[in-house]
Amino acid sequence: MMDNHDQENRLHEDSEHLSDTDPVDHEALEENAHTQETEKSEQRRNIKNRKNWTAAVFGGMIGGVIASIIVALLFSYNVIPLNETSQNSDDTGSDTTATEVVTTLAAEEADVSTNISEVAETVVGVVNLQQQSVWTGSQEAGTGSGIIYKKEDGNAYVVTNQHVVDGAQEVEIVLNDEERIPATVLGGDALTDLAVLQIDGEKVDRVANLGSSDELQVGETVLAIGNPLGLDFANTVTKGIISGLNRSVNVDTNSDGQADWVTEVLQTDAAINPGNSGGALVNADGEVIGINSMKIAQSSVEGIGFAIPIDAALPLMEQLETEGEVARPLIGISTASLNQVPPQFRYEIQLPNDIEGGMVIANVQQGSPADDAGLQQFDVITKINGQEVTTILELRKYLYSETKIGDNIEVEYIRDGERHTTTLVLEKLNR
Q1: Which terminal residue of the chain, N or C, has fewer Cβ atoms less than 10 Å from its own Cβ?
Q2: What's the whole-number average pLDDT of the chain?
Q3: Is residue 408 very low, low, confident or very high in pLDDT (cuts 50, 70, 90)?
Q4: 65 DSSP assignment
Q5: Termini Cα distance of the chain
Q6: At residue 341, does pLDDT exceed 80?
């Protein structure tokens, strides 16, 4: 048995023995502790990343559900058109019932700019010169625009509007370089508002490229070129679209407040201002497809301009160039609608109860087709070739659009309350 003193000595020896044979490695302990701390940090990062990933997935799912709900609501309220389709990359099919989309200038801006620069050279100023008094020479009474469309045998030809040169004693053409040269008016037509001028072709290096108006589509981009508000703004180019095709516009050629003609025009929202008359309406290829003619000038109306389709203008331009006028058929009467007959003459007119309208003959030209056919004053024309006519506008429209010189036409009329029919041969209308 060891006493307490011996036990203490033994313990002291054991501790010394341990210190000598198994010394403590403090560096290893520190390194081990650092490793454990690194592992714990890595575990914390992994846990955090897993949480972030879970949150991202969950957030994406929520976002997708919300987006689906929003799209469904938009469709249900027609905010997104249901017929809107997107093109697949393989382009394996097409919807044959879809509305045709018109390609505009956006895809061909550079090519169009070059073409527009060239066609702008063919758009010239047209100056109407009139003598204001016997004491002065001709002075500028107005300006418009014109298009050089042809050069032949040393001469060049310009088409413009009839109202641009109306009443002119002299006409001058202002070229691109501002040089003025005299022009001769070969012919004009008030009903279609077209006139053709001839100038010396020595200074003309380019003519316009005339396109076709038959293939135009609503929404197609066009540009109007002209001289708005005078020559200070020469060769102004404005951009718009074809807003409508085959628009019918009533025209009063003699300022009597009554429509004398219905002209078929193109409608555009390209800016057309006073001075643009006679200028070019140009398509995306730089081709002239219309001749700017008029606009609706009301404070409540914006962007409604009209141009004469080039396909309708070309045959008239040829007649004006060669004949000086547009040849139209003649009946040889002056007429008025029933409601325009003065009260003191209405007793002369007797109509069957079923006749509601017609054209009353006011005068028959001696030796005319009407005279040869036996028509008389106060006869009421109701039909031509079976086509009802109730206004002078309908009468002219049918004659000038559906018939030609030399045609035989059947005229139905009322005399003394009885129906009659006669046939006459259309002659050339001489102005």
Answers
A1: N
A2: 76
A3: very high
A4: H
A5: 160
A6: yes
Name the phi and psi angles at 65, rounded to 5.
Answer: -65, -45
Length of the chain: 431
Distance CA 290, CA 243 (A): 13
Integer Cα distance of 325 and 297 in angstroms: 29
By the 8 A CB rule, do 307 and 293 touch?
yes
Instruction: Report strand pairing: 359-364 vs 380-384.
Output: antiparallel
Tell me if the pTM is above 0.85.
no
Residue of 145, 213, 243, 277 marked active site: 277
Do 354 and 386 meet the contact criterion of CB atoms below 8 Å apart? no
> What CA–CA distance (Å, rounded) separates 233 from 272?
13
What tens digit of pLDDT does each residue of 164-179 get? 999 899 999 999 888 9
- Does residue 299 carry a catalytic annotation? no
d(CA 408, CA 411): 10
68 is catalytic: no
CA 209, 215, 220, 224 torsion-angle sign: positive
Q: How far apart are CA 175 and CA 124, in angstroms?
A: 5
Report CA 213 to chain centroid distance, whole Å: 11
**CB-based burial, 354-388: b 16+ in 10 Å, e otherwise:** eeeebbbbeebeeebbbbebebeebbbbbbbeeee
Catalytic residue among 145, 163, 189, 243: 163
Contact 275, 144 (CB under 8 A): yes
Q: Which of 189, 193, 269, 379 is catalytic?
A: 193
Q: How confident is the model at residue 251 (pLDDT cuts 50, 70, 90)?
A: confident
For 19, 134, 171, 235, 313, the CA distances from 278, given in Å and listed in that order, are 117, 30, 14, 12, 12
Three-state DSSP at 195 gives: strand
Residue 113 has pLDDT above 50, yes or no: no
Helix, strand, or coil here: 216?
Answer: coil
Q: H helices of 77-150, where?
A: 109-120
CA distance 238 to 236: 7
Q: Please tell me the predicted confidence (pLDDT) of residue 3.
A: 47
pLDDT at 356 over 80: no
Is 277 part of the annotated catalytic residue set? yes
